[in-house]
Amino acid sequence: GQWKVGWHPSMLLGRDVYGATIGIVGAGRIGQAVARRAKGFNMRILYYDVVARPEIEKELGAKRVDLDTLLREADFVSIHVPLMKETYHMINAEKLKLMKKTAYLVNNARGPVVDEKALYEALKEGRIAGAGLDVFEQEPTPVDNPLLKLDNVVVAPHISSGSYETRSKMAEMVAENLVAFFEGRQPPNLVNLEVMKVRPLSKII
Q: Which band of pLDDT confidence, cut at 50, 70 and 90, is reported for residue 203?
């Protein structure tokens, strides 16, 4: 009943994704799933990954580029890398300066991959158009996080995977990884490959 209060012609307007360029940072399982959905919107797909992904290049016409090129050309930057020493603050002030003024940053990976202070300044100063954040450097994020006060930010409390089917699959993946570990095999969803140098694996716990 409050629709007319404060209404104006540009209220809640967004940006079409159809035909736009998406830049996927981290083209693993989730990044590839995002790419397949983007293809349905006729999006041009760029991706940055430490390894080439010929399957999505052939299937979706995705193009592998370096991170700086991706940030310069993408209308939407979607982050899907694991949090490691190499990816901590991967998107910092210098990287944000490369993005288009009309571009959006979406982080569904891990909060510390993005330097929140630098992101806040970029958003506040209008150097990028907006951001969608499901993750934060500190979780739960403090209520006084300045990002929460910006009109060009959409946030969620780390619940992008919130469906019955997804949560069930997550439980299955945990079980599969545990079984592999205790059988001395490489867990299928291993992030820290360095642990595979430890023999026997039981020394890890």
A: low
Identify the pLDDT of residue 1.
66
Cα–Cα distance list, 25 to 114, 126, 140, 164 (Å): 12, 22, 24, 27
Neighbours of 203 (CB within 10 A): 8
Catalytic (active site) residue 110: yes
pLDDT of residue 204: 62
Domain ranges of the chain: 21-155, 164-204
Place of tokens 């993946």: 173
Catalytic one of 55, 59, 94, 139: 139
Residue 36 among the catalytic residues: no
Sheet order of strands, 63-64 included: 63-64, 44-48, 21-25, 76-79, 104-107, 130-133, 153-155
pLDDT score at 193: 79
Q: Is the dihedral of CA 95, 97, 99, 104 positive or negative?
A: positive
Query: pLDDT tens digit string along 28-59?
Result: 999 999 999 999 999 999 999 999 999 999 99
Please give the CATH number for the structural domain made up of 21-155.
Answer: 3.40.50.720
